[in-house]
Amino acid sequence: MSVVPSRHAPRLAPGRRHLKLGTRVHLRVQARVLWAGVCLAVLLVGACVLSLTVGRLGIPLAALPDTLTGRGAGIDAFVLDRLRGPRLVVALAAGGAFGLSGALFQTVTRNPLGSPDVIGIAPGAGAGAALVALLMPSVPIAFGALGGAVLAMALVYVSTGTGFRNPTRLVIAGVAVTAMATAFIQYIVYAIERDQATVLSSYLNGSLTARSWSDATTAGLVLLVCAPLALALSRPLAAAELGQDAATSLGADPRRTHTWSVVLSIALAAGAVTAAGPISFIALTAPQIARRLTRGTGPHLALSVLTGALLLVLADVAAQNSPVFEKLPVGVWTMALGGLYLGRLLFGEWRKGHV
Asked: Are 65 and 71 contacting, i.e. CB atoms less than 8 angstroms apart?
């Protein structure tokens, strides 16, 4: 028995109940996406203002416009150029890169648990970056982070036996790879001098302290190069969500889309880790929050970038101004909040029978 959809009937596909419920619903969904983007952008601007103005050595709010345009007082210009400015730009670029990396990986794996930190890619990148920075200083640190990320992804893919499809195996394999990367890092910390070990420990927890404009340039360039390529994959990714046969019939190449998405996800995670360290759970939570804001399907790549940047900037504001945990790296804050979110997500997947 075959069903030919009418002009106003829902469009159906294997494995889906409803893909498009007519033009009115489609426009309503697009309007929700637009409003979510506007709200996230406004919140992000507010978070940036907080990052530059609150706390000790914060730039006075009234002086902020002049300082940003190069007409500020000496102390304010110093704070912007040496302290708060690079730190904020790194938070924006690294947070956006983590968010986009997680969105790509979760979309191609069809798995809400598939993110660079949960499956060991970010810890692997951190281990590679640490190894290159400490033992092979002549090699650019970005190559170490990229190599560690690729190796971690390959280990997870092989050890699950099912690729990236099974959530339970994915998490277990990710925990194993993370443990191996952590053990390797601890060996390096043990083998080097105390001063270097202190610096390395701060980096491996994910820290925005003492960031420089070179760090901001690294994270910014990675995001600027990879973001347009990722956005160009939006339509093929949306088609791939319909299933391989449906995507092929629409002119998309699911295998090529999958390959490029994974490559870009690794590059984004490696670039963010290089600049800010392996900050946890931004890549996991940002795409999920973006999806829930729109209450719809799709990769939501641009919203994931905004959400990731917002989460990391707010976490850094908390790390800088908390009266109790003043010197904690920002990665500890994201780890604590992200761990709670991961537990909630795992419980929801278990209730659905997916794990």
From this structure: no
